[in-house]
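EI: anyone free to look at a 1583-residue chain?
SC: sure, send it
EI:
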Amino acid sequence: MLDLVFIDLEVNPQEKKVLDFGAIKSNGVKLHTSQKKEFENFIEGFEYICGHNICHHDANYFDVSTDVRFIDTLYISPLLFPERPYHNLLKNDKIQSDDLSNPLNDAIKTKELFYDEINALQQLDKTYLQILVNLLYDKPEFNGFFNYIQLKPCGDTVRLISTFFEKKICSNAPLEKMVGYAPIEVAYALAIISTNDKTSIIPRWVHHQFPLVERVLKRLRGTPCDDRCLYCSEFLNPQKHLKRIFGFESFRRYNGEPLQENAVNAAVNNKSLLAIFPTGGGKSLTFQLPALIAGITERALTVVISPLQSLMKDQVDNLEKKGIVDAVTINGLLSPLERQNAIEKVESGVASILYISPESLRNKTIENLLLSRQIARFVIDEAHCFSAWGQDFRVDYLYIGKYIRELAEKKGIKNIPVSCFTATAKQKVVSDIKDYFKDNLGVELELYASNASRTNLRYQVRLVEPESRKYLELRELIKTKDCPTIVYVSRTKQTVKLSDQLKNDGILALPFNGKMDPKAKQSHQDDFINDTVQVMVATSAFGMGVDKANVKLVVHYDISDSLENYVQEAGRAGRDPNLEAECYVLYSDNDLDKHFILNNSTRISCAEINQIWRAIKNMTKNRKSVCSSALEIARTAGWNYEVIDVETRVKTALQALENAGFIQRGKNSPHVYATSILAKNYEEAASKIDASKLFLSIEEKTRAKRVIKSLISCKHITREDTEAAESRVDYLADILGVTKEEVVDVVQIMRQEKILKDDRDISAFIESTRKSQEVLAAFQKLIMFILNKLTDDGILLNLKLLNEEAEKLSIKTNVKNIKTILLFWKSKSYVRLNQENQDLVEVIPQMTIDELKNKQMKILSVSNFIVEFLSQRFESSQKKEPLILFSIIELLESYNNGLFVEYHAEVHDIEEALLFLAKINSMKLEGGFLVLYMGLNINRIKENGRLQYTKEDYRKLDEFYRHKIEQIHIVGEFANMMVRDYNAAITFVNDYFFMDYKRFLSKYFTQERLVQIGRNITPKKYDKLFKSLSTLQKEIIDDDLSPHIVISAGPGSGKTRVLVHKLASLLLLEDIKCEQLLMLTFSRAAAIEFKVRLRSLLENDISFLEIKTFHSYCFDLIGRMGKIEDVKDVIPQATKMILDKEVEPNRIIKKVLVIDEAQDMTEEEFHLVEALMESNDNLRVIAVGDDDQNIYQFRGSSSDYFQRLITKYNAKAYNLLENYRSSEEIVAFANKFVTSIQNRMKSEPIVSRQQANGTVMLTKHSCAGGFEVAVINDLKANYRDDTCAVLTSTNHESLVILGILKRNGIKCKLIQSNDGFNLSDITELRFFTEMIRQNICSPKISKEVWEGAKRALNEQYSQSACLRLINDIVNTFDSNYEEKYMSDFTLFLNESSIDDFIKTEKSTVMVSTIHKAKGREFDQVYMYLNSPSISSDEERRKLYVGFTRAKRFLSVHYNTTALDDLQSVATEFRIDNTQYDSLEEIVVSLTHRDVNLTFFKDKKALITRLRSGMTLDISADYLMKDNHKILKFSKAFSDKLMEYQKMGYVPSKAKIRFVVWWYCKEDDREYAIFLPALYFGKKVRTD
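SC: here you go
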């Protein structure tokens, strides 16, 4: 052998500079130097220089004579060591070494490898060796090697290959052509073909550098020839492999059609295909067989993409049961060790089938694996997911084509074949799938489908009404058939409920649904397959891939949501073709309603995608990319982040934005670069690890050594992107079989021990150091406050009450911040949270309170230090850049070395503090290992901040959702048809799948029905909701295009009805979810009425729908319980919080805002509306009101704000002018009067739609006042057993009228308010509430506790005159809240008014002021107008409200000229000149202002014994009971008494109206008081 020298260089890849040289001569003389000249002198004179990757790397960094030949051990090694376990010095393209920067050691190893290669070459067959020489001699990578061993080309290369590889390659392969254009690739392909181990594969670096090798290998071994040569006949013969691998003699046929065989042959012939196989049709074998053949022949990997993780595992397990271990799955259900094992199988070539989910395509480890293997094809299961016309369109499927195309580009190959499979697909779906792959990959899918249907299945539909009878039918079927049965239901909870019911009736049944624990699912599935149980009650999640041949009965308890799914699910019966099976549907129209509701709740709308886009824009305001969790994005977008599947919904929206080019999802994992290793070699690193006291266990030290060894093995990398992949934390975790967190832990410790360099890999974005410090200080106070509330056993916190209490202590807070703290504790497993409702959360510490306090105090200590540390760095930087780079170890060392250290910190303490600072928005953090907690890396592409995700972008998704609605209707049509005509129904199904979809629709659906099946509601329900509406009302309901709508609704025009039906339309037909709609009213009674009517109309849960008063909603936003005394500033405060972004986004992010009685808005309320509009993109406002009925100007309301929605915001205006309440006569009277009001919105008159005649009596009195008796006389003469009201202008007048009615023995009731107190202050309700509190042990009130409290209330206060009212209040809450919480009841009482519960009754005359009567209607209305004024529009509108309360009889008594102009339109006009005597008795109701509150303070025992309705004595300025003074009049009321006496009235008696509790701010305590009514009689004249 000739003398030669072996060399290696250490090169800085960034600077392209040599750091170190190493060399060894063949005689053993060595050199290790950093001097290039010294190195060049050492190697001078050698004819051959040998190195690993010398040709294209090391030779670029030194100068030698042109006569020198290079020997490269890299390129020859795969040819000489092609079989596992390869060479022990090699890993992929690298020399294995434990030294980091010692090129001499690597040169020595190169020398050892070279002589091993010489020895291996001498063992080669001479013919094979000559083939390699002929192919490679003139190539620079090989020339030196062959020259050194003195081998030269000889013979006919093609003939040599053909002879030597006979029966190992296709005889008809174009060898001559391939040898001509790809000799190196042919050599590498032949090397792998020459091995006997089918798991040996071509190294990844060869695939990358010589991409044609895949095409060559496929042509030689994986492409059947037409002549069926000896090789192809044996190795590419599916029939032979079918027998050998699966033991089957023949392929399955469908009515004689060889569908399975044809599809297999197409795959073996490398064609791309779409196969439509019925359930149980052998789909799995159809792609598994070609995959296993490709694994044998080409050592290729087939990638199977499936949406179901459990199905992947089942398929792998089923293959293992057959002795086939070539398949693996990599998914989220695997443990780290299982994942490592699967990755190793793929990487090493053991696996030839890899099952993954679409989401896994974003994983860098998966990409790394696929780049390292020859890919036979991609198999896409459930391919209908590509089509918007399929039953399960998934936007993440649309990423698959892009991924395959980019993977092929990275591999340097033209394309990768695809096979698509689905069990059912109609023509439009087929064309969508084919078009998708044509557009994205440029491939034509060959279609393999059968028209054959399953002949061993018998279908039957039973109409079951009412739905309650379904269970009886089901039980009878199961008992009669007595066979393995699958029962399908549409809801998760139903699986458990129904299976329990069956078990109770002696039938062995188990539930199965997607929400179950994976182990429980597997256990239940195994029990069913093994016949341990007879019945499986399941959602559609069950059955896919389940191989159970003896199922003879499938019952759809709820019909499927599409014919595709029904056919698939029914097809799980009779998997054995020789077995007759039956498929029943127990059908009712409600089945479809359930699907429509579910469809609407799961649908993601264009507006919601824009909400996510808006969140991304906010998060990338100062940078192009963001790293965040799905939950954080949901929270920023204003979504309810506590709902089920919110992460899936966020990812769907992100995928839609990516498909439209708005963003790009990155692959998200931190790196630990090999260049950051400070130890010289593995031994030094291992020694430091052993000596370290920071590692807590031998296991941690072992893990650290494995990580450092893996990093060291990355040092000689051919390609930089390989380094990026192999040093990623997720990749290290995957290949080592540990968690990402475990990798991070040991890396941080190695940084502390200076084994790894401490890179500044985290960035903090600080807008203002002061703001960061203030935010942290505010949270610090709030945290200490909350910590002091917690108990070891857990505590139920009312977030509003907690917020109020914190505010009283001057702590800057809001509910959003409280939630942030609780959610942080939850994320760190410090506490467990049980969210009872929006305001109530149970906090259960997972450690002692002292431990929790200590942990949080440590976090706060470290957080304060970090903010100070980074603030100083920010202030000291010259440019004041807001982005500050730092590292965790840097912070750790600085903190622990500080002068005033409170705690000794560990790495995890720094990490927790950083996460805490990020969560509270003290600063924005990115990079480092924090990305592990964030999960999603998003790059913003579209820079234009005003750009929106458009309807065109949304078109595909919209198509899918619209078609989903049609599918539900179509399956309902099938069910009804099956009942009428079995054969016609079967034809209907066949036409659905095989006929052009438009032709199918036109054949079976009339034009009217086509309109119906486009609605997300059954025709029956649609008619029930909307058929009875007028043309204009229907126009309003159907208006889904106007950005805003203003409905000016005249009195009696059915405003409430229209609004309720509009709400129903929004929820059912306009893609609005309950949580996206907000309705604001001016009274809780109205809010309750809307909810009651809507629930009755929809017949489904609307618990997430917010219908609140303006004040109630604002109290929610600011986080306080609603109380009368706090009402004044609540709306402006809430508005400011919205504008300052201090409100939890999901409380204000809405799609529709509905305003009832919008004419009553004040400036503050309108500003709130505008703030909501500003905070939402395209918030749709629907405002309903009547400017003619704006009678609250005294509190600042104005219809100008109502009109401003039209003038400023271009709302579409509708006028509802048809009055369904009042007779024509009353409407004419009101129309005449209303024309005197200025600046009205309605120019046309109101039109009565009542047929019955009415009466309008106008009586003008000549007396100055006191004609109340005349009104009552009028009433007595005309009153019938109808609803009736007497309306007055003042409360005093109402009390007078009430007294006269009572003295005349007429049953009457006063519509009164609770002036100055909350309902919760009334002693009867206080008692009731206390009874509940004493008997509940959770926030929820049980039925037993509720009923018990009611019984106690009625016993304790049986003598109370207001007991009936109290029971009405309690019962109203009872009927409107299915689940009762104490906080809801408290809120209900605080926000309600007494007049909300005073119901209009027949045979009872209601007495009210006009203001309190607004919103009510009566058959008869009598109005007492003493000196009425019409000098202002407000006065006119008040009278107009009073007139329009009447339905058929209106009698107006007045005593001025104000109404004289109306005489002509009254049916009867009278003049009454009677001078009425003053009243015998008047009644005055006292409020808090009329009594001396301090007087009550020492009389609790006396007051609490009093009852409403008790009569009291009067003595001067006092009220007496049993000779005890129990009330003292206030000074102001004492003066009033004197005035009454001057008028000739003296107090005769008093009655208690309410006993209430009064809060005294000075004492900070409550006192029992009572509010009486005083009765005054005429003073008896003594003369």
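EI: The chain has 62 helices and 52 strands.
SC: 👍
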